[in-house]
Amino acid sequence: MKFKHLLLIFSFAVYTLAAGAGEFQISGTVTKKGGGQLEGVAVLLKGKNVSVTTSATGTFNLIPPVAVRMNAEQKQTLSFTLRGNAVAFSQSAGKLSGNVTILSPKGRLIASTYFTSLNPATDQIMLPQLASGYNIIRVTVNNEVYTCPVMQLGSELHLFNKNAINSSVGNFTLTKIATAAVDTIVASKTGFENAVLPVESYTLSNVSIAMDSAVAGEIAWGKEEDPTINCKVTGVMPEYSALKADSKLPDPFMKLDGTRIKNKSEWACRREEIRQQLLKYVYGDKPIPAKGSVSGTVSSSKISVKVSEGGKSCSFDANVDMNGATAPAPAIIIYDGGMGSSTPIPKGVARIIFRAIEGGAGAKTGPFFTFYGSNHPAGYMVAQAWQVSRIMDLLQQNPEIIDPDRVGTNGCSRNAKGAFVGGLLDNRIALTLPEESGIGGTVGLRLKQYLDPGESESPYAAISYVRWLSDVALGPFTSGHSESADNTERLPVDMHEAMALIAPRAIYIMDNPSILDPKSAYVTAMAGQAIFKALGVGDRFTYQGASGGHCQWRTQYEASLNATIERFLKGKESTTTGNFTTDLGGKPNVAQYYNWDATELPGKL
Q: Are 500 and 251 in contact (CB under 8 A)?
């Protein structure tokens, strides 16, 4: 609609006072691109330090404490002449309807008046005298909105526009002021890219914000070392001094921002949060070399790996026993060749014999520390897992001998700790087979002091006797073998969540209830299985507890082992897996150690 003349005179008349009636509000809805309202989105008015969280229907309502700054073009402009405290607009054809609103510098609604069927040739709009100083005026005429700052200086009214401040003479155009400082609305949620929306109008009652998933397309489960690495982890990971003790295992579905995931589709980015927590508080960092930095050869008898990047290099070998398998064969990477273990690997599954280097005090050794330096804070479990990942890099480059989609890890005792970490920190490992791993493996770190106080292995052993875990990361939580020196209950993450990183791949835990923190191992495994079930993959979590000599094979393991290998390495999907059995006597009440909701989540991973 085009205007010719509308007279706006600021003088005493009948008007609606609204001082103190409420602040200026910005409201709207946040949705996921492609459809679906998003609950738990943090909506921040940047520059004003005001934020709210969206409701179950994705709606939000922001109340800024001060006026919002804008930088946007008008749909059309209004021509006017400034005459003292009067603003004369061009006359237009037809009757006019709308309202005029005055806002304080802090965005508070001061006064508002409505008009209908106004004849610009004979009628005028009456408003109260503006307060001295800066004000905001918003004019709505026939559904078009015009907003600008105005300045009352004594008896004169000055308007800001694109031509800067204007005095009481001349013809001007009412537009929004262009400003370098523009307020923006920022929407953030774990698993989604931040959405940024510049403020374009003071009429913000139906703002629509659509958010993109932080991980494009489907997650490449089983195809990448860390398939959730593109998730942006924005929540807080506090230092030790800010953490509070909790004897119960943490809720794996509670995100760093304090909200809980409600759909399987949210698991990927929650998984990345857990992975980063484990690296920060337990294991130490596991770097991923740049693409193209890994080279070498793969044959039916040996795998030779070389890593070169930025002037650094290291190399190592692993022997291969095809074990009657036909290439491209499924395979199990066996830590230290199964030393101390008699785990029977079925015929038709190749054995990759991996030397698991470890050490106690002094400079750390092995290919990882050659490459990153002996003072790198990672523990030996990460160093071994890094080597396994470089083997996987090479197998993906050369898939003719060993099928990179059908590889598992296995070991017993200290090597089971390594096999467990190797499986959870590389998503390409299809099956993780830890046998009697103890502390540093599949046993909840905080549980030992409550459930197995007399056992020899303590969390401190995992960073002192051999630095399996990171003495830098875990050190603040345990300073000795005694219970008084054990503060692992302050950890915001634990081994049931480490197990969860393996989902939706498969894990089979072989435990010995006669030694190695048996009650802690049982409760941790129960919590791990609950996570797998909540993610809809409970049949990919198998647990067998059978008492006996340490690292001696028991027939109780055999059926479950063969079944998991048949299904997850040999590809026979019809095979039944997912049993949970143990001969542990006096089983603990798991509800004392975790009580979070493990109901299966809707949606898809």
A: no
| Residue 402, domain member (yes or no) | yes
- Is position 263 within any domain? no
Check: CB of residue 279 under 8 Å from CB of residue 286.
yes
| Alpha-carbon gap, residue 35 to 210, rounded angstroms | 9
Domain match, 543 and 416 both: yes
**CATH value at residue 422:** 3.40.50.1820
Could you tell me if 205 and 318 lie in one domain? Answer: no
Count the residues in the chain: 605
Q: Is residue 260 part of a domain?
A: no
Instruction: Give 200's DSSP letter.
Output: -
Q: Which of the listed residues 167, 192, 212 is the one where a domain comes to its end?
A: 212
Residue 458: CB partners within 8 Å, gap ≥ 6?
A: 439, 448, 478, 481, 486
**Would you say residue 385 has pLDDT above 70?**
yes
Element (H, E) at 151: strand 144-153
Cα(508)–Cα(504) distance, rounded to whole angstroms?
13
Contact 520, 444 (CB under 8 A): yes
- In a shared domain, residues 496 and 382: yes
Question: What is the pLDDT confidence band of residue 178, given thresholds at 50, 70 and 90?
Answer: very low
Nearest alpha-carbon partner for 440 in 462, 465, 412 = 462
Query: Under a CB-based contact definition with an 8 Å cutoff, are residues 65 and 50 in contact?
Result: yes
Catalogue the active-site residues. 413, 550
DSSP string, 66-115: SPPP-----SS-EEEEEETTEEEEEE-SS-EEEEEEEE-TTSBEEEEEEE
Query: pLDDT, tens digit, for every residue of 327-382?
Result: 999 999 999 865 555 678 999 999 999 999 998 888 999 999 999 999 999 999 99
| Tally of domains in the chain | 2
- Residue 135 pLDDT class (50, 70, 90 cuts): low
Instruction: Kindly state whether residue 229 falls inside one of the protein's structural domains.
Output: no
| pTM for the full predicted model | 0.68
For residue 283, what are the domain limits? 268-592
Instruction: Assess whether 32 and 155 both reside in one domain.
Output: yes
Alpha-carbon Rg for the chain, nearest whole angstrom, is 33
Does an H or E element contain 499, and which?
helix 495-500
- Is 306 a residue whose pLDDT tops 80? yes
What is the spatial distance between Cα 13 and Cα 343, in angstroms, rounded to a whole number? 93
204 lies in the same domain as 302 = no
